[in-house]
Write a structure and sequence with these properties.
112 residues, NE0471 N-terminal domain-like, three-stranded antiparallel beta sheet, 17% helix, globular
Amino acid sequence: MVADEAAFTPTGFRQKSSREFAISWSDGVESVYPVRALRLACACAHCIDEWSGEGRLDPASVPDDVHPLKIESVGRYAIQIEWSDGHGTGIYPFRRLRALADAVADDPTKPP
């Protein structure tokens, strides 16, 4: 494995609290995501218009207490999350998850 690749290889996932989800990475970093912000960051065709790139998801439609019900691997590059609000079509590539974590770390008040 190339040293850089460790930054994009998860070793574990856990619900850190009712509002935080954590991913441990091979490079020793733990990324913590506000759960609702992670749900709002879904980039599937239902949530983001495929042609314009504009958001289609109304944030008001996502409950404050949304949480993962099920997490499945998608190959060796992503996870798919089934959310408590009934949504489950989004794929979260590991590289994107790491970028979202870096964005949250840079400005925790801004959703990813």
